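Weekly puzzle thread! Below is a chain. First person to post its structure in token form gets bragging rights.
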Amino acid sequence: MSKDYERLMLAAKELKGWNGPSAVVVGLAIDGLSVTNQMLGNWKSRGVAKGKLLEACRIIGCDPNWVETGRGNMRTGAAKTEEVTRSQQTKLTPISPKSRHQERIDEIVALLQQTDMEGLAVILDRARDAARDYPIAKQTPASSA
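Winning reply:
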């Protein structure tokens, strides 16, 4: 297994909460980067494709140099600032319920974990549609009825 793939997956898990290849595929797709499980398999054995590395790192919030070499910090400057801000906010305010958008992403990830490679393209198309159906401006917290 390539070290840069391991580091990219670790960053995705720690910075975005994307646990496993299927979650990474969906997360990157929702943010506009087309990556398949097949591509991740190639990255795992051959190393992360340079053409996708920078964009994947930008979306995840990790430093591409750290992914490639293991030197420096995992988080980019923006991700470090966001983490500090988030940690300060959680100390001051209670954690809010998941948005409908996040619930939908979780549902899609669960479906992906049950889907074989042939159904992956259909699921990714639905994920993109779901992301467009729930723009951030229209998100409301899930009601507890």
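Puzzle host: Confirmed. Bonus trivia for everyone else. The chain has eight helices and no strands.
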